[in-house]
Structures are given as C-alpha cells and as structure tokens.
Amino acid sequence: MGDQAKKPVIRPVEKTGDPIISQIGDFRIYQFFFCMLVFLSKFGTGWHTLAHIFLAAPTPLSCKTENVTDACSSDCDEREFDTSVFKTTIVTEWGLVCEKRFLSSLSQSFVMMGIMFGSMFFGMIADRFGRRPAFLGCCFMQLICGLIVCLSPYYWFYVIFRFLTAFATGGTMCTSFVLIMEIIGPKRRELIAILYQIPFNVGHASLAVFAYFIREWRWFQFSVTIFSAVFLIYICLIPESPRWLFTTGRVDDSIKILEKIAKRNKAPTETIRPEIEAAYKVLAARTPAKKGTLLDLFRTPYLRLKTICMAIVWIVVCMVYYGTAQYISNLGGDIFLNNLIAAGLGIPGTLLCVVMTKYMGRKITMMITNAISGIALLLLVFLVYTSDKLQVICATFGLFGASITFPNAYLWGGEMFPTVVRSNGMGLCSMLGRVGGLLAPLICDLAHIKLWITPLIFGIVSIIAVIATIFLPETRGHPLPETLEDGEAFGRKEA
C-alpha cells in the first residue's frame, strides 16, 4: 500500500499531429520551469540594449573662461562638466560634446547594428549546429565582452566591445525565443510569445534603479553585466532542443531528452521511442516540400504588399520604442524617475497586449497602439517649450503604445507569413526593425537643432505605421498559411 501511495500519477498526453508535443504535453511543469529559466537571459537583453541611456546620460557642460558663456565656442579655453548627478559617463570620459556630440549617439547605433548582425549570425549557427551551443555561446560572449567594456581605455575600444556585446545580445534574443517556442505546444505558444517580452521590460525599467545607486559608468556597466554569470547554470540545465534533434535525424538523442522531460511532466514514457521512430520514418519518406526564399516574399502582388507593410510596422516600432526611450532621458526633471515610470509601463503594456490581441485581434490592436504613439508624440511637438512634466507624460504615452506594438509585431508577423517563408519573412522584418533602432539615436540627436524635430519624426512614422496596417489581414482564429499560394490568397478578401 505504501509503495502504491508513493507511485507518481501518470497523466496521459493528448496526441496531436506534432510528434514532440504528443510525448511531453502542451505546457506542463517542465515547460513552465524551462521558460522561467530561459527568461533570465532576457533581462540582459534589456540592460545591454538600453544601457546607453545612463552610460551617456546628459551631463551639463559650462565654460569657465571669463566673459564666455558658450562652452562650445572657440573662445572657451576651459570647460567643466556638472558631475553633481553622474560622476562619470562616456560623455565626460572622452569629451563627447560640441563637435563630438554625435559620437555618443553613434556608439548606440553600433549597438543596434550589433544586435541586427548577431541575431542573423547566431540564428544560422542554431540551425546548423544546434540551439544549445548557439545559446550558450552568445550568453558567455555577452558576459565576457560586457566586462571588457568596463575596462575601455579609448572611445573606439568602447564602441567595438559594445558592438560585440550587442552582437551576443542579438543572439540571445533569437536563440532563446526559438528554444522556448520549440518545446511549447500550440495552446500556450501565443501567450508565451507575448509574455517573453516581460523580462526585457523589467530589465529596461531596472536600469534606472542601477543608475540611481551607481553613478560611475564603468561600475554601472559592470553591474548590468555581472548578472550574466548566472548563465553558468545553463550548462547543466538547458538541453538541446528535442525538436531540432528530431528534424536533423538525431532520433536517439531526441528520444533520451523527451523521456527525461516526460518523467518531469509525469507523462507516459514507454511509447516515446516507438512513436518518435515511426514519426521520423514518415518525415524521412515525405517528399521534400519546395523551400521558399527571400525573393518569394516579393514574387506575387498581395504577398509583396503584406511583406512591405509588415516591414514598415517593424521599422517604426523599433525606431519609436528605442528612440523614445532615449529621448525621455534628455527631457527635464528627474532622469531616474522619468525612465523608471516610462519603462515600467511597458510591463502592463505587454500584459495588455495579451488581452487586446485575444479579444480585439492583431490588426485593430496594432492600429490603436501605433495611433497612441503617434498622437502622443505629435502632441509633444507643441509642448517642447512647456513644463517638463507634460513633456514626460506625452513621451511616456508614446513609449507605452510602442510597448504594446512590439510583442504584437512578433505574433502577427509569425502568423501572417506562410510556413515555407516564415523564417525569411520574420528575419527580414527583424533586420529592418534593427535598422529603425539604428537610426533612432541619430534622430534623437536632431533635438539639439530644434527640440520639436525628434518627436515630430517619431509621431509621423507612427501614423505611417497605422496606414500600413490597413493593408494587412487579420490572422486571429485563422489557420496559418502553409504554401506560397496560401500566402498570396490569405486575407485577400479583407484587403
């Protein structure tokens, strides 16, 4: 009787067309803890992507030369930084002011470039050599390069290693998302894809807390990097994706991992080997479907239109989110409180995205959130010479709208592109989105010419994204398009 009481209760798994999920369940205890573990890597992506806000925090400059008020004047022989708020920044370290002011924003553009190339490079590594080595590689690269940044003796040394840190950060974004999506069933995949953004939002918001207590840029960089040492636990706790092993023919390895997961999920294990081996025989015997290419996205008129419009949405959301986040730090008032509130609103924004996309659909949600960003930022154009609080409120609403748009762009894009070119479509959109992020700090610099130029550009592009959304079909509740023919026909009646 005692042995029977201790015997674990085996819960049957619903059999579906997915051979992997049919063995381990849609979303059980193992998948939950696996997601929580991988989500840790997303904190670092928020920190390293947006650390520039405080690494290059606004530091007032004054001229100590008698009868000269303009610190950038050639008549000014002695300049002095106000270090009452920040003791050191990269601006004070290397004198990135006046004619060198653009170098500060240029360093952040290199960060966005690093993320763009890193996601592409590690994405290819993950497909070729496996999800686990790619994920571990970029996690440890992020730790090592991030720590080297703290020791930067020169500006260009700093830029190069910030680029390499961002290169690794782009890899963690890409590979962590793939690892999670390949082990979760369809019932929870949509929810987790959106909640995946939450650790990034928390990372962004916590930067203000780090910066409040650490006012020297080298120690600040160290504090947001050293957390990555926790990634050492991934060596023991993150297995290879059983789905990748299965599709690449390493069936025995896939079965071993699936059996371990099934035990944790209290699922039956005795049928795993025969069912997986049978499923692989079907997979191997199947006539290979025509593989799509990037050019296929532009061959037919409606798929081409959808690709262009979705790319516009991605460019805009990256530009507005990263640009507005940086712009807020240049507004008056308490830089720590401004950033904490603005970034913190991204958390309820992401949660709101779950509800809005479920009940209102992807299209209406996208139009509303881009409209919120556009209206708030265009309103800011007329308030640039008013109170600091009004400016921060408007900019915060702009960032809040973008925080809802971001996870929706991932979800909607993944559902809209047909299976044969889904990776190509999402890869293209992500790459172009990073171009928007690359341009964002340079657009923020235009505020030094006229304060209203930056919010005007961000506001106009947000409205352009609303217009582009009109031409895209709703995907909620529809089966995913599989072939190029499906992709061309999908949503045509709604266009």
For the structure shown, list the relevant keywords.
495 residues, mainly alpha, Growth Hormone, Chain: A, two-stranded antiparallel sheet, 23 helices, 2 strands, membrane, transmembrane transporter activity, Organic cation transporter protein, transmembrane
Provide structural commentary.
The protein has 495 residues and is an all-alpha fold. It has 2 domains: 10-286, MFS general substrate transporter like domains (Growth Hormone, Chain: A), CATH 1.20.1250; 291-495, Growth Hormone, Chain: A. The protein has helices at residues 2-6, 21-24, 29-50, 52-55, 90-94, 102-129, 131-149, 155-181, 186-195, 198-213, 217-226, 234-237, 242-247, 251-264, 272-285, 301-329, 335-344, 346-359, 362-381, 388-416, 422-445, 453-470, 484-489; strands spanning 61-63, 79-81. The protein has a two-stranded antiparallel sheet. The protein is globular.
**Terminal Cα separation, in Å?**
65 Å
What is the percent of helical residues?
A: 55-70%
Q: Element order, helices and strands? A: HHHHEEHHHHHHHHHHHHHHHHHHH
In terms of per-residue confidence, which ranges show pLDDT below 50 for 5 or more consecutive residues? none
Number of helices: 23
Biggest sheet details: 2 strands, antiparallel
Strand order of the largest sheet: 1-2
DSSP strand content: under 5%
Q: What's the pLDDT, averaged over the residues?
A: 88
Which topology of the largest domain does CATH recognise? Growth Hormone, Chain: A
Oligomeric status = single chain
According to DSSP, the number of beta strands is 2
Secondary structural class: mainly alpha
Radius of gyration: 24 Å
Question: What is the 3D shape?
Answer: globular
Assigned CATH architecture of the largest domain: Up-down Bundle
In the CATH scheme, the class of the largest domain would be Mainly Alpha
Number of domains: 2
Q: Find the CATH superfamily of the largest domain.
A: MFS general substrate transporter like domains
